[in-house]
Design goal:
The complex is a heterodimer of chains A (169) and B (279).
Chain A: H1 2-21, H2 38-43, H3 50-68, H4 73-91, H5 106-109, H6 111-134, H7 140-165
Helix pairs in contact in A: 1-3, 3-4, 4-6, 6-7
Chain B: H1 2-10, H2 12-31, H3 33-61, H4 63-86, H5 100-103, E1 104-113, E2 120-125, E3 138-141, E4 144-152, E5 157-164, E6 169-173, E7 179-183, E8 191-195, E9 208-211, E10 223-231, E11 240-245, E12 254-260, H6 263-278
Antiparallel strand pairs in B: 1-2, 1-12, 2-5, 3-4, 3-12, 4-5, 6-7, 6-9, 7-8, 8-11, 9-10, 10-11
Helix pairs in contact in B: 2-3
The chains are: A mainly alpha (169), B alpha+beta (279).
């Protein structure tokens, strides 16, 4: 139990640090900035209560916002997607349910499962994020274009990160 | 109470979700100028269009009365034209319609939002800058003065109603041309006050009050109301006159927006003269 808390706390600071110091400064092709801080929410254990999950999402979002000068936008998107996390987990639950000892990682539940889960979460998050940032239905096609590109690359970065940091048995 | 608590406990995560999302949304609007701007514009447009829709429905209930008033005005205009044709003199009859021509131009407008129960009542019209409406134009209804245009967007404009304690309009008693100021005391939407009429002037109940046109906003001779109460307070050299408004501000709907085509010229001349006069 304790080791889980410590692991997630370290993960929290590490992900925020990387996001703020490195990834926030990347603007590939002028439209792509990887927002991988959602990884922290993705990897939180299944037995975290919903209200605590939402609070963590709010804190994470606000911290990112403060450093990105977009007070509220990231927080809004992250809280939104976090609220749907339990439902999304339920859609693709394994036959015998989730084991709270296991982490939500590909080597526990399979590669396909992790891609589905993370892709849907990232897609919702980025859609809300871009919509709140544009805040209008004008240029909706451009918004969708940016959304598609960002979801694709963010997903790749998340997968690479997960595989690169996975503890091998 | 217990049910409420049970509800909150049962849906705690959903309620927390709504609260946190609401809070972030407020933060977005509060700290991001761009989103704030869009939100305010959109909601303004939305409320105006809704009000316009509500006004359309409400209009049906007043249709008959409205028709009667417009009918009366038509008869008045017809009489006026035929009178003018018969005797071209129209002596001592200052009527704003006689200015007509190219001095004042008229645009019809429709009231889509109106209030009478505040101290500073505003009216919203369905005409804006795209129809040539600009601030400081006069608004006149079929029965008399309504107010002055305050602010305009491209399709709507707000009007400072006569029932607004900040609006003062120059007016005179029609029968003897003594000048005073008309303003609202914020109490009753049917009555308005006329000030600055000295006590040596003879006034009677029922005397008509019309605008004097000095301000270059209203044309001269727009009817306002008739005197309904005369009071002479002690130690005062002026009457305290109550005027009953001709216009019922609760039901008014069709108005005319009056533009003074020479207003800029007039004001320029006056300010220049004032400057040189002071030197």
């Amino acid at each position: 139990m304790n080791s889980k808390i410590i692991l997630n706390t370290i993960r929290f600071f590490l992900i925020l640090f990387v996001q703020i110091v490195i990834l926030n400064n990347i603007h590939l092709l002028g439209i792509f900035t990887p927002f991988i801080y959602i990884l922290f929410i993705l990897l939180l254990p299944v037995d975290v209560p919903d209200w605590f999950l939402l609070l963590l999402a709010f804190i994470t979002g606000i911290i990112i916002d403060v450093f990105d000068n977009t007070i509220g936008v990231h927080a809004f998107a992250l809280i939104f997607v976090t609220f749907f996390r339990p439902f999304i987990l339920k859609i693709w639950a394994p036959f015998d349910g989730y084991d709270s000892v296991k982490e939500l990682l590909p080597h526990e539940y399979g590669f396909g499962w992790f891609v589905k889960y993370s892709l849907l979460m990232v897609a919702i998050h980025q859609l809300i994020l871009f919509f709140m940032e544009a805040f209008s239905f004008q240029n909706f096609a451009l918004l969708l274009y940016r959304w598609g590109i960002n979801v694709f690359f963010t997903e790749i970065i998340i997968l690479v990160t997960v595989f690169a940091t996975e503890r091998r048995r | 109470m217990r049910n409420l608590l049970r509800f909150i406990i049962r849906y705690n995560s959903f309620i927390l979700f709504i609260v946190l999302e609401g809070f972030s949304f407020v933060l977005i609007l509060e700290y991001n100028l761009y989103q704030k701007e869009i939100f305010i514009n959109t909601s303004n447009n939305f409320t105006n269009y809704t009000k316009q829709f509500g006004g359309k429905i409400k209009a049906y209930f007043n249709l008959k009365e409205e028709n009667d008033i417009l009918n009366h005005q038509n008869i008045h205009l017809l009489n006026f034209i035929s009178n003018k044709k018969q005797n071209n003199k129209t002596k001592n009859n200052i009527d704003y319609l006689s200015y007509g021509g190219n001095y004042f131009s008229f645009t019809p407008g429709l009231i889509i939002n109106n209030s009478t129960h505040w101290q500073k009542n505003l009216i919203t019209l369905n005409k804006g800058t795209s129809d040539g409406v600009l601030p400081n134009m006069a608004i006149v209804g079929p029965q008399g003065a309504i107010g002055v245009v305050f602010k305009c967007s491209s399709h709507f404009s707000t009007v400072i109603s006569l029932l607004n304690t900040t609006l003062r309009i120059g007016a005179f008693i029609k029968k003897n041309n003594y000048n005073g100021t008309v303003l609202w005391d914020g109490k009753d939407y049917r009555f308005i006050k006329l000030q600055d009429i000295p006590i040596h002037v003879s006034v009677n109940i029922g005397d008509t009050i019309v605008t004097n046109g000095y301000s270059s906003i209203f044309p001269p001779g727009v009817p306002i109301g008739c005197i309904s109460d005369i009071k002479n307070e002690d130690n005062s050299n002026f009457y305290n006159l109550t005027v009953r408004l001709f216009t019922n501000f609760r039901t008014i709907r069709h108005v005319y927006i009056i533009k003074n085509n020479f207003r800029d010229e007039l004001i320029n001349l006056e300010t220049e003269s004032r400057k040189e006069n002071e030197q």
